[in-house]
Amino acid sequence: MPLSPRVPDLGALDVMVSVARLGSMTAAGREHGLSQQAVSARVRAAERDIGVRIFDRGTSGVALTPEGVAVMEWAGGILDSAEKFATGVTSLLREGNATLTIAASMTVAEHLVPAWMLSMRRQSPDVQVQMRLMNSAEVAEQVLDGRADIGFVEGPDVPAGLGVAVVAHDELIIVTGPSHPWATRRAASMELLQTTALVQREPGSGTRTTYESAVRPTVPPLIELNSVTAVKSAAISANAPAVVSSLAVEGELRSGALVRIDVPGVSMTRELRAVWSLSAALRGPRRDFLDIARQ
C-alpha cells in the first residue's frame, strides 16, 4: 500500500539522525557533504512532513525535543532496515557473503589495519574483509568510484565527495644511517633540510604530501620509492637521509640501524583518517569497521 505522506525520504531521515547524533547542523553537513543551509532546509521539510518539531534550535547548537527523541528512535530502525535491505541485495549480486573492501595507504595498511581486520572478523565472522594497499591519492580515487567501500589515508587533503573521520595520529620523522654526518649531532636545521635531497615516497603518497607541505624543499628527492620498506632499506644501505612514519621505524631506531634526526621548528604530526563515499549511507559493515578503527 502507499506510504503515508508523513514518512520523509530516507536521505532526510539519515541527515536528521546525524544532526541528532552530532548536535550540530554544520557538523552534520560536513559528514554528508552538504552546506548548513541545505541541512537546515531538509530538516525543516522533514518536520513539516512528520508534523512535529524534531529539534530545538539555539546559539550553541540543536537539541532533540521530547517528540524528536521518539522520532529519531524510529528513524534509526528505518535506516537500519534500509541498510539491511542494501546489504542483502549486495550479497545476492555477489552470490556469497557480504564483502567489505578496504583501500589503505601504506603506513595505515602495514601498522593498523591488520588488527582492525582481526577485530572485525571476531565481531562479524560472515563479513569477508579484503584490503588493497596503495598511496593516499589512489585510496581516495577507489573510494569515490566505488571500487572500495572505505579507505584510510595519511595525506592532509581529501577530495570533495568523501566523508572523513580521524582514527589515529602519526608523526613523520627524518632518519639516516648511523655513519651519516647528521647522525653525529642527531640534528639538522630547516635550511639544511630544505636543500638536501632525501629518499622519499612517490608523488601522491600521504607521506610525500605532508613532508612537502611542512618543509617546502628546494631540491628534488634523491630517489622516489613506492613502499615504506623500500625507503627504509635505501636509508640504511645508502646511508642517506629519508622521511618516514615514526610507526614504521620503531624497530630500526631501537636497534640502531637508523638514527632519528631532529629538525628544530619542524612539526610533521599528521592525522590518519578514514574516508568513505557520501553517495551511500555509512551503515552496516562500513560503519562497523569505522567504529573498530576509532576505538
Q: Can you give the helix content as a percent range?
A: 40-55%
Any low-confidence stretches, pLDDT <50, length ≥5? none
The end-to-end distance, rounded to whole angstroms, is 43 Å
Radius of gyration: 23 Å
Molecular shape: elongated
Instruction: Please summarize the sheet with the most strands.
Output: 7 strands, mixed
Mean pLDDT value:
88
Number of strands: 11
CATH architecture of the largest domain: 3-Layer(aba) Sandwich
Order of helices and strands: HHHEEHEHHEHEEHHEHEHEHEEH
The total domain count is 3
Percent strand = 15-25%
Number of helix segments?
A: 13
Q: Which fold name is given in CATH as the topology of the largest domain?
A: D-Maltodextrin-Binding Protein, domain 2
SS-derived structural category = alpha/beta
CATH class division of the largest domain:
Alpha Beta
Write the layout of secondary structure elements.
Elements: H1 10-22, H2 25-32, H3 36-50, E1 55-58, E2 61-64, H4 66-94, E3 99-104, H5 106-111, H6 113-123, E4 128-133, H7 136-144, E5 150-153, E6 162-176, H8 181-185, H9 190-194, E7 199-201, H10 206-215, E8 223-225, H11 228-237, E9 242-245, H12 250-255, E10 259-261, E11 269-277, H13 285-294
Parallel strand pairs: 3-4, 3-5, 7-8
Antiparallel strand pairs: 1-2, 5-11, 6-9, 6-10, 6-11
Helix pairs in contact: 1-2, 1-3, 1-4, 2-3, 6-13
What does this structure look like?
The protein has 295 residues and is an alpha/beta fold. It has three domains: 10-93, Arc Repressor Mutant, subunit A; 95-167 and 271-294, D-Maltodextrin-Binding Protein, domain 2, CATH 3.40.190.10; 169-269, D-Maltodextrin-Binding Protein, domain 2 (3-Layer(aba) Sandwich), CATH 3.40.190. It is built from 13 helices and eleven strands. The chain has helices spanning 10-22, 25-32, 36-50, 66-94, 106-111, 113-123, 136-144, 181-185, 190-194, 206-215, 228-237, 250-255, 285-294; strands spanning 55-58, 61-64, 99-104, 128-133, 150-153, 162-176, 199-201, 223-225, 242-245, 259-261, 269-277. Strands 3, 4, 5, 6, 9, 10 and 11 form a seven-stranded mixed beta sheet that branches. Strands 1-2 form a two-stranded antiparallel sheet. A two-stranded parallel sheet has the order 7-8. A hairpin with a 2-residue loop joins strand 1 and strand 2 (61-64). The longest helix is centred in the first third of the chain and has 29 residues, at 66-94. It starts with 9 loop residues before the first helix and ends with a helix.
